[in-house]
UniProtKB/TrEMBL annotation:
NCBIfam families: queuosine precursor transporter. PANTHER family: QUEUOSINE PRECURSOR TRANSPORTER-RELATED (PTHR34300:SF2). It comes from Halorubrum persicum. One of its GO terms (cellular component) is plasma membrane. It is a multi-pass membrane protein. This is Probable queuosine precursor transporter. Involved in the import of queuosine (Q) precursors, required for Q precursor salvage. HAMAP family: Q_prec_transport.
């Protein structure tokens, strides 16, 4: 019988990121960032169907007096904050694993929601309200999933392409540049698929006219770009706290 202790030992073993120190700063940060990423992503998936309007202090060309965007915008922006912090601390390959495993987890969220909606409810009114609030539209699901897998992988690629040239310096540049470019891709794919291609090809609702699509996409992107700039100090705080 081997005397080697492994993760199956009754005491919990000595393997894993917390084996040497249960409060290891790097390990705690890794778990925390992955948790933030997954929670924000699941929240975004559940809230994407609600469209909200944010009034602007002045009307902007093309956009108009308000920004129209999915309710998932803030939650989804947090995924880029989490992935950029994770990419800076743990590298490209580890971040790609997180991004793509979380993409698969999207389908689990949808399956669990759909199974709950399909189950008979005791109170018909509550069941109807639940389905109205959480029943994901096919066009929104198609647009959000495709936008996610493309934009998040692009974000990781650009972040590390810049890091390869700058080293640890200029974190602000790779945070803003990667998020700004990936959010542009995300917005174009989501708006284009959810509100034009899916309605046209799948017959889910009516496709929006070009001027409305442009206003919808540009308004969302301006807000996402502002969030990308404003979250840069938070990225510095997280990375600095872990590296101290």
């Amino acid at each position: 019988m081997s005397s080697r202790t492994d993760g199956r030992a009754g005491t919990g073993g000595t393997r894993g990121p917390f084996a040497a120190d249960p409060l290891d700063r790097s390990a705690v940060a890794a778990v925390g960032l992955i948790t933030l990423f997954v929670v924000a992503l699941a929240t975004a998936q559940l809230t994407a169907a609600k469209v909200i309007a944010l009034p602007l202090p002045v009307a902007l060309p093309v956009v108009g007096p308000e920004i129209t965007l999915p309710g998932a915008a803030l939650a989804y922006a947090l995924t880029f904050l989490a992935s950029d912090c994770y990419a800076e601390l743990y590298g490209r390959r580890a971040t790609q694993v997180v991004v793509n495993v979380a993409f698969l987890a999207n389908f689990l969220v949808l399956a669990l929601v759909w199974s709950t909606l399909a189950a008979p409810g005791v109170n018909p009114e509550v069941a109807a309200a639940f389905e109205t609030a959480l029943g994901p539209a096919a066009n929104v699901v198609a647009g959000s999933l495709l936008a996610y897998v493309v934009s998040q992988n692009w974000d990781v690629f650009v972040f590390h392409a810049i890091r390869d040239r700058t080293g640890r310096s200029m974190l602000w540049l790779r945070n803003v540049a990667s998020t700004a470019s990936s959010q542009a891709i995300d917005t174009a794919i989501f708006v284009g698929v959810a509100f034009y291609l899916a309605p046209t090809l799948l017959g889910v609702g009516s496709p929006l006219p070009g001027s409305v699509l442009l206003a919808l996409g540009l308004g969302q992107y301006l807000l996402k770009l502002a969030i990308a700039v404003l979250d840069t100090p938070i990225v510095y705080l997280v990375v600095g706290a872990v590296r101290e």
